[in-house]
């Protein structure tokens, strides 16, 4: 009896399974026909653009032959064309378009202060000073400025004067660029070195970090000019300059290194940087922090993995640290160049200010600062073009 | 385990490892010693001018000419601080008033720059609109234009201030002369054209970009408008970054000499920065204000006076820095992430 019941139930089970399977097959068939009709519909809609239809058909055939599964292929192509079909989702698109326009307006409104400021207080003065570069500008008290057209390049124009006649500016510009080539790599290396020191664990790290950031305040604006007559440092550099003082170790080292035949220029370069270490330390506060934050985003597991694979410290520096902070290097180069050029205590700024305040040559001063500005812009553009493609972003 | 036991265990392990453990330990100790010396030396390099100035200011007059004194004075005196303090005063105003004016101006500038740059930074970070990339290039351009390039045209512009001739209609065809008042510079700050405004925009943009987008999406779904979302949802989270922006703006404005010199001439405004510059000129020249008597001041006491004046001008900034050190440093590290 119980066996019978078992058998019966088994039969029933079989039956139900069969029915289910049949239903599933039916479903699938229905779906297939649905998909096919959908595809046909799509094809109909696409008839007006013959090429598109041909393309879709080709794509469908290709997919079908590739996947050996006509159902999914047909479905996929139908879906794809349905998505591409503009008629089927017109209201939705309109809504998103409205949203997009609203967002664009909101964005412009948020940026409006900057747009106004940029146009009124930067574009206008910049244009005005560009115009001044081409004129002889003379100021008469009570009447404002008088412009006299000179042109771009002739014997009386401002640009001709600053490049061919006045030697001060040319020389100061050369010095400034030379100093920049010395400083920017120096600051980068120094700040990277300091950042990797500060990235290690030791007692009093916060205090040291705070001290390294202090120059951002100490070298701001007015203080920078007053800092330069620093008694102790000037006496040290005096001592270093004395010819006979063989006791000064750096001088001896310098003599030894420079007496060699090869690498003279390189050693001279390094010695120049070392001589400027105070200035470099004073202008690398922000760069240290940027590098430090970059170093802290590198997961330690990377170094562990590299160590397990037998990487030396040198290798893991070039293979892990360097690529991981390459974006920080770009940011730092840009920041350093901007910071270096806009500082107010440089010799070039002094020449430019003298042109204005002592000679009252507005046009020449404008020409001088425009040349300077264009050089910065060109330099930053080159740096950006070279480095931005090589920067590695880890996400 | 007592100390002796520990030591014994260490030697035991060292013997087992064939001297490797000891070598490693000595190496680590030498490394951290070298690092300590290096860090200390470089800290000294940065702090040295401050220490030097402090020592110089505390010397009495006889100590200045004593060759045996390098850093620590024999006779302490605060006379030079008193003299330097007087340098900040004018005929009509006390030195305290100079500091108050400077403080209020820097606070106003800082607040305006912070608010405008927060708005703009948010706009750049979250909204898509035509010419956005070009506009952001303009931010960079603003950063790299040397202030000297635009300072003369700006000066002339504010001498005869007019926006598309609108003001001229009411003022007999002439613009307003805004020079000598604080309006021009405050106007520039409110429209993101102040000193280093591009940097603040960049910092705020970076901050808002790192904020999760879901925050706003949730607000929009719940029916918050764009403005309300910004003020109620995003601003509270941006507060630390805004504080940093304010602090930077405050500090840089306190010490700024480019815009301050032009828009706040020393004849009309007594500010710490232009007073300090004027004092520096006075130190180099001859007309030094010595109350009571006027005599030719030797160079040593001039540099002493200079040092004290710089210290007095720096003191408020140092106090702020010590209190808010964290928000200075952390804002930069937050804004550096992802270039």
Summarize the structure.
Helices cover 78% and strands 3% of the residues of chain A.
The structural class of chain A is: mainly alpha
CATH superfamily of the largest domain in chain B: MetI-like
Counting copies of identical and different chains, the oligomeric state is heterodimer
According to CATH, what is the class of the largest domain in chain B?
Mainly Alpha
Strand content of chain B: under 5%
Any idea what the shape of chain A is? globular
State the order of secondary-structure elements of chain B, H for helix, E for strand.
HHHHHHHHHHHHHHHH
Number of strands of chain B: 0
Q: Return residue spans of chain A where pLDDT drops below 50 for at least 5 consecutive residues.
A: 46-51, 64-68, 228-233, 243-247
What's the number of structural domains of chain B? 2
User: What is the helical fraction of chain A, as a range of percent?
Assistant: over 70%
**Helix proportion range of chain B:** over 70%
Percentage of residues in DSSP E strands of chain A: under 5%
Radius of gyration of chain A: 36 Å
**How is the largest sheet of chain A built, in terms of strand order?**
1-2
Determine the CATH topology of the domain at 167-219 and 283-388 in chain A. MetI-like fold
How far do the termini of chain A sit from each other?
A: 69 Å
Largest sheet of chain B: none
CATH level 3 topology of the largest domain in chain B = MetI-like fold
N-to-C span of chain B: 52 Å
Account of the 3D structure:
The complex is a heterodimer of chains A (395) and B (339). Among the domains of chain A are: 2-84, no CATH class; 167-219 and 283-388, Orthogonal Bundle (MetI-like fold), CATH 1.10.3720.10. Chain A contains 20 helices and two strands. Chain A has helices at 2-45, 50-67, 70-84, 90-110, 112-133, 158-165, 167-198, 205-213, 215-218, 222-227, 231-241, 249-259, 264-275, 277-282, 285-296, 300-308, 313-324, 326-342, 347-357, 362-388, and strands spanning 135-140, 144-149. Chain A has a two-stranded antiparallel sheet with strand order 1-2. In chain A, strand 1 (135-140) and strand 2 (144-149) form a beta hairpin. The longest helix of chain A is centred in the N-terminal third of the chain and has 44 residues, at 2-45. Chain A is globular and about 75 Å long. Mean pLDDT of chain A is 72; it is low at 46-51, 64-68, 228-233 and 243-247. Chain B is an all-alpha fold. Residues 285-296 of chain B have low confidence and may be disordered. Chain B has helices spanning 3-16, 20-58, 61-64, 79-87, 95-126, 132-144, 147-159, 166-170, 183-190, 197-210, 214-221, 226-254, 258-263, 272-284, 299-323, 325-336. Chains A and B meet through helix 4, helix 5, helix 8, helix 9 and helix 10 of A and helix 2, helix 5, helix 6, helix 7 and helix 9 of B.
């Amino acid at each position: 009896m119980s066996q019978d019941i078992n058998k019966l139930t088994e039969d029933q089970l079989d039956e139900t399974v069969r029915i289910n399977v049949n239903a599933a097959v039916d479903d699938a068939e229905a779906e297939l026909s649905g998909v096919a009709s959908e595809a046909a519909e799509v094809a109909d809609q696409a008839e007006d653009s013959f090429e598109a239809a041909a393309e879709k058909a080709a794509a469908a055939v290709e997919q079908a032959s590739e996947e050996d599964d006509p159902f999914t292929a047909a479905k996929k192509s139908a879906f794809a064309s349905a998505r591409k079909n503009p008629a089927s989702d017109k209201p939705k698109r309109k809504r998103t378009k409205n949203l997009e326009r609203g967002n664009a307006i909101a964005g412009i409104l948020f940026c409006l202060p900057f747009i106004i400021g940029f146009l009124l207080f930067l574009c206008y003065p910049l244009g005005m000073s560009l115009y001044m570069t081409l004129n002889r500008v003379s100021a008469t008290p009570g009447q404002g400025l008088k412009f006299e057209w000179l042109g771009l390049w002739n014997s009386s124009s401002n640009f001709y004067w600053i490049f061919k006649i006045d030697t001060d500016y040319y020389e100061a510009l050369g010095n400034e660029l030379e100093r920049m080539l010395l400083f920017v790599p120096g600051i980068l290396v120094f700040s990277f070195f300091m950042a990797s020191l500060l990235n290690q664990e030791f007692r009093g790290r916060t205090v040291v970090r705070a001290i390294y950031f202090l120059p951002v305040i100490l070298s701001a604006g007015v203080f920078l000019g007053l800092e330069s007559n620093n008694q102790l440092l000037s006496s040290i550099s005096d001592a270093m300059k004395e010819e006979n003082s063989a006791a000064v170790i750096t001088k001896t080292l310098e003599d030894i290194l420079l007496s060699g035949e090869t690498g003279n220029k390189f050693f001279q370069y390094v010695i120049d940087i070392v001589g400027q270490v105070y200035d470099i330390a004073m202008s690398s506060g922000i760069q240290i922090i940027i590098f430090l934050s970059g170093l802290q985003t590198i997961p330690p597991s990377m170094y562990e993995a590299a160590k397990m694979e037998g990487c030396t410290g040198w290798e893991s520096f070039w293979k892990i640290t360097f690529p991981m902070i390459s974006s920080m290097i770009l940011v730092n180069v840009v920041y350093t160049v901007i910071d270096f050029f806009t500082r107010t205590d440089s010799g070039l700024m002094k020449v430019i200010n003298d042109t204005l305040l002592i000679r009252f040559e507005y046009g020449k001063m404008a020409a001088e600062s425009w040349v300077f500005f264009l050089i910065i812009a060109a330099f930053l553009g080159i740096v950006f073009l070279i480095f931005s493609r090589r920067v590695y972003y880890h996400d | 385990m007592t100390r002796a036991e520990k030591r014994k265990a260490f030697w035991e392990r060292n013997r087992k490892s064939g001297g490797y453990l000891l070598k490693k330990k000595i190496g680590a100790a030498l490394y951290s010693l070298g690092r300590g010396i290096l860090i200390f030396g470089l800290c000294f390099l940065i702090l040295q001018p401050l220490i030097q100035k402090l020592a110089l200011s505390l010397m009495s007059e006889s100590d200045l000419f004593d060759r045996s004194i390098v850093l620590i004075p024999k006779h302490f005196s605060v006379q030079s601080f008193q003299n330097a303090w007087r340098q900040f005063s004018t005929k009509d105003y006390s030195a305290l008033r100079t500091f108050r004016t400077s403080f209020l101006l820097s606070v106003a500038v800082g607040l305006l720059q912070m608010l405008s740059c927060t708005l703009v930074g948010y706009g750049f970070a979250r909204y898509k609109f035509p010419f956005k990339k070009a506009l952001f290039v303009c931010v960079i351009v603003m950063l790299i234009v040397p202030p000297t390039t635009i300072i003369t045209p700006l000066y002339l512009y504010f001498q005869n201030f007019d926006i598309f001739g609108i003001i001229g209609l009411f003022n007999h065809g002439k613009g307003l002369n805004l020079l000598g008042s604080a309006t021009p510079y405050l106007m520039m700050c409110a429209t993101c054209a102040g000193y280093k405004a591009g940097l603040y925009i960049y910092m705020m943009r970076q901050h808002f970009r790192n904020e999760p987008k879901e925050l706003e999406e949730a607000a929009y779904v719940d029916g918050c408008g764009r403005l309300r979302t910004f003020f109620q949802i995003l601003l509270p989270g941006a507060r630390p970054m805004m504080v940093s922006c304010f602090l930077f703006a405050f500090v840089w404005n306190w010490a700024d000499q480019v815009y301050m010199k032009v828009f706040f001439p020393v004849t009309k405004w007594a500010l710490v920065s232009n007073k300090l510059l004027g004092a520096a000129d006075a130190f180099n020249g001859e007309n030094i204000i010595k109350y009571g008597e006027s005599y030719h001041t030797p160079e040593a006491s001039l540099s002493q006076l200079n040092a004290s004046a710089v210290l007095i001008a720096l003191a408020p900034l140092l106090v702020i820095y010590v209190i808010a050190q964290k928000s200075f440093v952390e804002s930069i590290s937050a804004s550096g992430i992802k270039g």
